[in-house]
Design goal:
mainly beta; about 80 residues; six-stranded mixed β-sheet
Length: about 80
């Protein structure tokens, strides 16, 4: 199955400051996921995905991104594991 990928822009908090972040966005049926990181393994890709509330996605006409996410993105921090 081929998945169509989009570009996503959102705000996140990094070091106590709001920061714009660009991620890859993919849909699986009615569910939406931000791809935080992916690692190719042979013919496969392992993906770290964050599920998003699709009602908070806004389609935009911007050359830098396809969607803007109006929710709060909390990205995992490896140093906290």
């Amino acid at each position: 199955m081929r998945v169509k990928l989009y570009r996503l822009r959102s705000l996140t908090v990094e070091n106590g400051k709001d920061t714009l972040i660009d991620l890859t966005l993919e849909f699986e049926g009615k569910r939406a996921f931000a791809i935080w990181e992916f690692i190719p393994v042979g013919d496969f890709q392992l993906k770290a995905r964050l599920e998003l509330d699709p009602s908070l996605l806004q389609r935009v006409t911007n050359p830098a991104c396809d969607f803007y996410y109006h929710g709060q993105l909390v990205l995992p921090r490896p140093q906290d594991n």
